Please model this.
Amino acid sequence: MFLNLCFLKLAKGVFLLQKIFNSINGFLSKPFNKRLVIVLIVFSFSVLLVGCLGGDSGNDDAGAVNNVSAVAVASVSVDAVSANASNLLGGGAFGVSGVERVEVIHFHGEYQCYSCLTVGAYAEETVKTYFSKELEEGKISFARVNVELPENQTLVAKYGVTGSSLWIGVYDKTGFHKEENANVWYKIGDKQKYLDYLRRVLSEKLAGD
Model:
């Protein structure tokens, strides 16, 4: 009967391990997350081992109760650890990807040619069409900035802008990252191709890629 209880506990341990892996799914791509998985596995097996060795082979009812209690405590502990891991690795304002927000800025001069106007218009449409939820949540933003106005010089200097251009700024756990996207200029002849391309780029930025 003692062995039966141990097998029962180990069977429930398999279920517990599955729950652990489901709870931390998506974290395995980073070295710190892999260490977290190892800690959780060691913790789970430690709980199971203690529960198995502490069982009373002479009292089936007591052993069953102890078994259920051990699994329940382990489950609660794993949930707590997973919640803390979520907060540390992807919680708060940064989200699971580690990205706090992305800003899309069309810098332009006082007078704009057709291409300049189109680059800005298509970029704004991309953001409003495909990222309306993120826009409302403040995770993404779009702005048109006149590089010739005195009040915009701080932002112009921050991005290092020298002329009409489309820039993407990413704020994540490591700080601020900027990138000029010059490819959009070659796609203004095909609106849908432009929108699809920029949509993919912004999706990757929001995902932390």
Summary: The chain is about 60% helix and 15% strand. The longest strand covers residues 99-108.
